[in-house]
Amino acid sequence: MSVVPKSIYSDLEAQSGITKNGAPDTKKPGGTGNYQGFVAGVFSGIAKLSVGHPFDTVKVRLQTSERSHFKGPLDCVLTTVRNEGVRGLYKGATPPLLGWMVMDSLMLGSLTYYRRFLHENVFSSHNLRQYASSGVSLSKDTIREAETKLPTIGHALAGVAAGWTVSFVAAPVEHVKARLQIQYSADKSKRLYKGPIDCTTKILRSHGMVGLYHGLSATLLFRTFFFFWWGSYDVFNRYLEAHTSLSAPAVNFWAGGLSAQIFWLTSYPSDMVKQRVMVDPLGGKLGDGERKYKRWRDAARDVWVKYGARGYWRGFVPCILRAFPANAAALVAFESVMRALRQ
Fold first, then answer.
1. Is 248 within 8 Å of 6 (Cβ atoms)?
2. In terms of DSSP H, where are the helices of 182-225?
3. Nearest to residue 278, comparing CAs of 334, 199, 338, 335?
4. Of 94, 108, 97, nearest to 46 (Cα)?
5. pTM (two decimals)
6. SS3 24
C-alpha cells in the first residue's frame, strides 16, 4: 500500500483547498489563498540571506584582497569574526536582503499557484482518466494518486513556470549586480558605476529597457533547470517521508538541500555562460567597450575555446558549498510559514 506524503507540496488538501475525497473545501473558499505562498516566500528570502550571506562575504573578501591578507577561507572567517565580530560577516547585507525577499516571494508564491493550477486543470484524476481513455498509458494507481497529490512531473513543470516568472524580475537585478561586481579598480573615481542606482540609470539612458534586460534569454534558460530542482525536491520529500521517521522540518531541510545540489549540478554551465553574457560590454553611448557576444551561443563557444569543458565549472566549489545550507534553510522557513498560515 502506498504512503501518502504529508508534505505541503504533495498533499492536495494543503495546496489546493480540496478535501481528500475530491470535493471542494467549503471552509476555505478559493483554497489556501494565493497570498500565502508570497508571504512565506518573504521569510524564505530572509532565511536564505541569513545563512548564505557569510559565504558571499568570505568569497568577495578573498576575491578582492591581496593573497597575503588571508591564508584561505577559514582564516578569512576567523580573522573577520575576531576583528569585527559576527556582524562583520553580514556587511552589505541590506541590498541582497531586499532582493531575495522580493524574488523568493515571487518565485515561491507563483510556484504555489502553478502547482494548484496544474493539479486542478492538467493532472486531476478526471483529466488523467480522459488521457487514459484516449490511449495514453496510465496505471490505475497513478490515476488514484492524483486525487490526493500532484505527480512529480507536475512539480517539475510548476518549477519551470515559476522560474520563468521570476526571471523578469531577476534578470535586471542580476545584470546590474554582475556589472558592479566586475569593477576591480580600488579607486572609486575610476569606476564606471558609482552604485546600483547609477548603473541602472546609465544603462537606461544609453540603451533603454532593452539594455537593462540584457541577458534575459540567458536567465530564462538558466531557470528552466528549476525543472530538476523542484522535481527532485518532491522526489526527496516522498522518499524521506515514506522511509524515515524524520519530522516535517527535517524532511524539508534535507529535501531542500539535496534538491539544490541537483539543481546546481545540472544548471551551473548555463549560469557560467549567463554571467559572461551579462558582463559583456553594451557599447554605444555607455562607453564600456565593444560587445563581444551577439548571441548566447557565442559566449558558450568562447568559454569552450578558451578553457575547454572545465571552463563551464569555474567557481563551482564555493557555489555548491553554499547551495545546501542556504536553500535548505530557505525551504524550511517557507514550509513552516505555509503550515502556520493554514492553522
1. yes
2. 196-212, 216-224
3. 199
4. 97
5. 0.78
6. strand
